Amino acid sequence: MPSSPLAKGSNRIQRPVPLREGVYEALLELIIMRELQPGQHLVESELAMQLGVSRQPVREALQRLSTEGWVDLRPGYGAFVHTPTEKEADQLLAVRALLETESAGLAAVNRTEEGLARLRELWDAGVAAVEAGDVDAVVLANADFHMHVVQLSDNAVLAELAAQVDRRVRWYYAPVARLRGRRSWEEHAKLIEAIAEGDADAARRVMRDHTENTRRTYHEQVDGAGVEAAGV
Amino acid sequence: MPSSPLAKGSNRIQRPVPLREGVYEALLELIIMRELQPGQHLVESELAMQLGVSRQPVREALQRLSTEGWVDLRPGYGAFVHTPTEKEADQLLAVRALLETESAGLAAVNRTEEGLARLRELWDAGVAAVEAGDVDAVVLANADFHMHVVQLSDNAVLAELAAQVDRRVRWYYAPVARLRGRRSWEEHAKLIEAIAEGDADAARRVMRDHTENTRRTYHEQVDGAGVEAAGV
DNA sequence: GGATTGTTTGTTGTCTACAGTGTACCGGTG
DNA sequence: CACCGGTACACTGTAGACAACAAACAATCC
């Protein structure tokens, strides 16, 4: 039995993923991409019909989306896409700065060679996307890069909260991230350097500036003041 | 119509709260109080029978408890009370320190007279509970006090994340909080002072020390090293 | 025409039933 | 005794039904 080719868990037949999870992913994507508009009423039976499932997995997915803040459940009235406010955006960006600054410092302390190598790969991919002018890839590469820094912190709770915040922030700054992507990758390079040197203070300083730049850029964009995005 | 005695929203008849919310509260309480043990299998039909409802509201409550980290859903196997680990506890306490330190600084900036008055009331209640030797009341007063500081920060996202973390932390330090409650209320008094003076740096310093004391005390308790709790 | 009331339609919240899967137990065989 | 296969039972995931409530619409009254 110990040498059985089927003994390893990795060869287990995967059980089908519950429908509720597919529904969750589908709805989340529609919300993030704004195909489901803020404030829009999400009618369970319609969603169920469109997605080809019964109402139950839809309800369960909505429950989870509600807990994560994407959807507001109003008992008796139904589910509505959460309407973000500017104040909320500012608060999210402030909290993001706090969490990612702390993560950067911890990443500098807890880094691994593999982690650094991966970070550099992600950086290369991001720069390539910028040079190719592939805006969607830039946005994605940016999110991947940040999440990897957070993971290098080796604090799972911090990573989890940062992921929550980051997803909600995407609502706000995806358009910003498209502008002047190159500059933000220069800041990313400085961050890699600080982490590689194990310089927690430098890592924190670079990340704090970087995330504050995002916050400032968001406000400039909302105020319609300019297109001089400083970075993400 | 403007002067109708029924015009004010506060006279509205309250719609019944959905069962799922009552189930959620009941289960959460059982988990926090450890009447439902870590790792325990939560069988939907049993819970439904015990709570006198059908399985649906139980499923919906479990969905929410899972998203919040209290319960692990394993598709096809069911729901299990989340098993906290020491590493997780440490990470939670570290993140709690980060969030609450930032909150304290913002509270010093954004404080209001009402907020301060309320904080002092909560402090009085906490000290009275300590002197009455009412341990459960002490634990509760402590959580109330911390949550109120976080609310004074005027950053709803921060408050929400801090609330999430605080609830999970309760699993770990409720026993600790019982010990030497008086000392932690002395630290709370210093915090009130710093906030009242609008001294954000002092507020941050006091809160950082306070929450780090908790973290240290937790480790000492787990190591069985002593009963010299430094505070919560 | 505007306000009020009654009716209809749509939706939510919950209950019940069914199908599929996992686990435990039992009997038979080597 | 150990192992295997079959069966029964427990549980999960989902679908469908029903009752209650919210909103929209139509009819009636002033």
From TrEMBL, chains A, B:
Flavoprotein found in the keyword field: no
GO function term, MF aspect, one: DNA binding
Protein keywords: DNA-binding, Transcription, Transcription regulation
Superkingdom in the source lineage: Bacteria
HTH gntR-type domain span: 17-84
CDD domains found in the cross-reference section: WHTH_GntR
The protein, known as: GntR family transcriptional regulator
